[in-house]
């Protein structure tokens, strides 16, 4: 191949990228493309279960607001939580993904039908239409499989239960929950 140029479209350009245009989040918000503001809640707790409890409560609150929106305006939104699990260490038998799923079911009363796992080796959302009114999914557990190239405008909560230090990885995960449903602002 002998390309004349290479065009890269990225929210996380590398340091050596020749950036031709930079679109700020405020501009995307004005065009009703993304959800802003981003509300970040951190915890000094090192217990991932506490973070998951807080995220679950927030999802319940947003689900009530979504029900009211549908009642008032006839607009359907089903808030989904994306949960980033700790990566399994080589030779370790502990599986954080399964532990999270078990905790959601046993401790938070979540139905197994509402949970999907999205890993490179296990993709339970591959053929699922997450925007369909009959789709029950409210929780997606992943490690790194949703870092790039996946969008679901019903994703409203990102619960990071892993020790992620990479700014690029964090930016990519946050990007998974920014897109506005139907590119229309939602009160």
Topology summary:
Elements: H1 25-30, H2 48-73, E1 80-84, H3 96-108, E2 115-118, E3 139-142, E4 155-160, H4 167-175
Parallel strand pairs: 1-3, 1-4, 2-3
Q: What would you say this structure looks like, in words?
A:
There is one protein chain. By secondary structure, the protein is of the alpha/beta class. The chain is built from 4 helices and 4 strands. Strands 2-3-1-4 form a 4-stranded parallel sheet, with helices on one face. It is globular and about 55 Å long. The chain starts with 24 loop residues before the first helix and ends in a 12-residue tail after the last helix.
Structural class: alpha/beta
What percent strand? 5-15%
Number of E-state strands: 4
Spatial strand order of the main sheet: 2-3-1-4
Roughly how much helix do the residues carry, as a percent range? 25-40%
> What multimeric state do the chains show?
single chain
Unreliable stretches (pLDDT < 50, length at least 5) are: none
- What value does the Rg take, in angstroms? 18 Å
Main sheet makeup: 4 strands, parallel
- Given the structure, what is the number of helices? 4
User: Span between N and C termini?
Assistant: 49 Å
Gross geometry: globular
- Tell me the series of helices and strands, N- to C-terminal: HHEHEEEH
Features:
4 helices; four-stranded parallel beta sheet; single chain; 187 residues; alpha/beta
Summarize the structure.
The protein is α/β, with parallel strands linked by helices and 187 residues long. It is built from four helices and four strands, in the order ααβαβββα.
């Amino acid at each position: 191949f002998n390309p004349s140029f290479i065009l890269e479209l990225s929210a996380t350009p590398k340091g050596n990228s020749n950036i031709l245009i930079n679109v700020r989040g405020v501009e995307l918000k004005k065009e009703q493309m993304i959800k802003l503001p981003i509300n970040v809640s951190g915890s000094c707790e090192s217990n991932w279960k506490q973070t998951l409890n807080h995220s679950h409560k927030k999802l319940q609150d947003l689900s009530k607001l979504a029900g009211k929106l549908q009642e008032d305006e006839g607009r359907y939104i089903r808030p989904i939580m994306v949960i980033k699990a700790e990566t399994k260490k080589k030779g370790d038998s502990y599986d954080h993904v399964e532990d999270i799923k078990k905790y959601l079911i046993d401790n938070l009363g979540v139905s197994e039908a509402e949970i999907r796992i999205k890993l490179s080796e296990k993709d339970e959302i591959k053929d699922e239409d997450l925007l369909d009114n009959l789709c029950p999914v409210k929780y997606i557990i992943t490690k790194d499989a949703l870092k790039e190239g996946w969008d679901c405008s019903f994703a409203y909560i990102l619960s990071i239960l892993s020790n992620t230090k990479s700014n690029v990885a964090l930016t990519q995960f946050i990007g998974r929950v920014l897109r506005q449903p139907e590119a229309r602002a939602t009160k």
